[in-house]
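Progress narrative, work stream C.
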Amino acid sequence: MSWKEKKEVKWLVMTILVLLLFYLLSLNRSWFQPIGVVLNAVFFPFAVTGVLYYLFRPLVEWLERRKTPRSIAVLLVFLVIGLSLAGIMMTAGPFFQKQFVSFVAQVPEMVEFVADGIESIRNEQQALAPPIRDAIPNLSQEIGSEWNRYAGSIASSMLRVFNWMSNALFVLGLVPFILFYALKDGDKLISKMMGLAPSSYREHVPPLLKDLDDTLSSFIRGKAVISLVVGSLLLAGYSIIGLEYALVLAVIGMLANIVPFFGPVIGAAPAVLVALIQDPVKALYVILVTIIIQQIEGNFISPQIMGKTMDIHPVTVIVLIIVAGSLSGLIGILIVVPVYAVVKVFIKHGRRIFHA
C-alpha cells in the first residue's frame, strides 16, 4: 500500500470514528434538542449567506482593486444581483413557470406509470412455472418496497425543504443584511480571530484561516460553476432530443448535481420517467445524454475547476454520504463533504501546532 493510500485509509478510519461519535450522541438527541432548535433556526439564512459571500466576494475585491470604496463596491454588487434576477425573471420566468406547472400536473401520471410497471413485473413473475418462480427473487415485492422506502425518504426530505421555504420571507429579509456586512467586513475576520486566540497561538491563526477560506471558496465556487455548466449542457441535450419540460428537468439536474456522487442519478430519474411516458426510445437518449455529460464533467470540467483542493477518495465520499444521510437527511448529505474538508484542515494545522 502506497503512502497516499495509507494516508487516505487513516482519514477514512478517523472519519468513521467521528461519525460514530455523532451517532452515539444522536441516540441521546433529546439532551441537545434546545441547541438543535436554535441551530435549525439560524442555519438556513447563514448557510445561504455563506454561499453568496463566496460567490460574490471576488467581484467586490475586483471593484476594490480599481479604487472603489468597499461599501460602494458591495452596493454595486447588490445592484448587479438585483438587475440580473429581474432580467432572468422577466425573460425566462414565464416560460419556466409554464413548464413547471405542466410538469407538476404530470407527476401523478409518473407515479401511476411506476406503479403499473411494478404490477407488470408482478404479473410476469406469477406467470412463470412454480419451480422457476420460486427460484428467483420476488422482484416486484423488492422493487415495490425499495420504491416505497426511497419515495418516503424523498418525500420527508422535500417536506423539510418546504417547511424551510415557508420562512422564505424572513430569510429573504435577513440574508441581504448579513451578506452586506459579511462582504463589507469579511476581510477583518483574521485580525478579530487573532485577538481572540491565546497569544502563544496567534501566529498560527492566519495560515489556518487562509487554508479554511481557500477550501470553502474552492468548494462553493467550484460546485456552483460545475452545476451551472452541467445544467446548461443538460438543457442543450434535452432540447436536442426533443424532451418535454427540458428547462425544468435541466434545472432539477443542475440542483441535484450539488449532491455528491449520487446527484446525477437523482437528477436523471425524473427525465427518464418523462421520456418513458413521452416515448420509451427517448429514455435511452436521456440516459445517453446523462452519461456523456457526466463523462465531460468528471474528466474535463471538475479537474479544471476543483483541481486537487477537494481531493477526497470516492469510497470516503460514499461512507460520508451514507452516514450523514442516515443521521441528518438531505442537509447532512449536502454539507458533509465540505465539513469533512474543514475538519481535515483543522487536524492538519492542529498537528502542525502541537508538534511544533
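Work stream C, second folded protein:
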Amino acid sequence: MDSLRRWEAAGKINAIRTPSGQRRFDMNSYVPGDKPDTKASSKKVKTTDDESTLRQIAKGIVQYAQQMQKLKLFPYPVVLQLGVEKLQAICVMQNKTQPQGIPDFLSNWAEHPIRDWTIEIDCPEEWKDVQFVEDQKPSGFCIELDGSYINEAERIQKEVMEEVFRKSAQDPNLYVDFRRLLVTNSVITKGERDIKAVLQLKPLQKVLEDSYEEAPASYKKQGKFYCCGHCGGLMHRTVDNQLKCENKHCAKQKKAAVPFECDKDDQVLWLKKGLRYFIHRPGCAELRIEKRMSELGLEVILYPDFDKYDLHIVFPDKTVWAVDVKFWESAYNLAKKVNEPIPRLTYQPYHEAFFVFADDIREYGDEYIQEFINHCPVKLKKSQIMFEETFLKAVEKKLKTCQL
C-alpha cells in the first residue's frame, strides 16, 4: 500500500475516497514514469504486459550488476525501479503480497523461479522454471532476456569483420583464428594476449585488446585464479568460499578446477561478458564438433565465408551439411532471435542444414526443441533441430552409408 500512496502522490495513479475515508485505487489509470504528468494520469492506461515487465526487470538487474562491479550500489537503475513498480502493480491487482522495494525483490523474489512467486504471470511456460539471479549474479536467462550483452558481442564481431574484410586478401583465415583464440583463451595474461596480437593477429590488435578486461581480484582463492576444468572459464568464489564456474551447466561434468598459472607481475585478463556468453560458451561446442569431424576423417570448415554459419561439413559422397551451434537457456528467447534460415554458400551450397544445441543443456530435452520450433519465425523440420550428441550420431550414420 505504501507504493500505491507514493504513486498517487506522484500522479502515477488515480484514487477516490469512500464515505468511510478509505482509498480505492484505479489500477487501469497506472502510468509508469519518474515525474507526475497530469495529462497522462487522467487517461486510462493499462499496465504494460507481463512479458514486457519481466524484460524490463532483467535489463535493470544486468545494469545493477554492472554498477556493483564499479562499487556504485546506488541509485538503483531507473529501468529496475520501473520494472519492480510494475510488478508491485500486478501484485495489487491480484490482491497478493508484493515485493517491498528493490532490495526485497532481489533477495526474496529474483532468486526464486517465477513459478514460486505469489502471483500469476502471463509469460512463456519455460520462463516460469528459471530465476533472474543465481549466486548473486544475473542468471543466464536474465542475460538473454536483457539482450545488451548480445549487442556487445555483435559490436565486436562487426569490428572484427570490418578489419577482416580489409585484410582478407593477406590472410583469409584471420577471422577463424580470431574466433578460435577467444574460445580457447577465455582467460589469458596480458603478456600472452599482446604477443598473440602482434605475432598472430596484428591486423586485429585493437579489437583483440578491446575483447578482454582485467579479471576481478575477488575471484582469487588463496591468492590464485582458477579455471573451470570443463569450459576453461574463470571460476568465482561462492558465499561459502567454494569455486564455481560462471556457466552453471559445467558443474554436472564434475571436473576439478585448474589453477591459472601466471607470472606474479603479469596481469590476468578475461573475455568481456558478452563474448564469454555468446562467443565462448557456444564456441566450446563448436570446437568439440569440429574435432570429432576431423577424427572421423571428414572435411570440416569452421565459420565458413566469414561466419555464414558455424560448421561446414563435407561427406565423401560430396553431401554438404551446414551447422549453426546454439547455447541459450531459453528456447523461446533463442527462437525470437533466429529470424532467417541458415544462409547458403555460393561456391558450395549445403544439402542439409541443422541447428545444434550444445550438450551442456541436453537435460532440457525434447520440450526445449519443441519450444524452439513452435516460436521460431523460420519454418523448420524437427529433423533439423537436435542436441550435440544426437547430431554426432547422425553424422556417424551418414558416414556409414557413404562407405557402403
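Residues 348 and 404 are 24 Å apart (CA to CA). No further action is required on this item.
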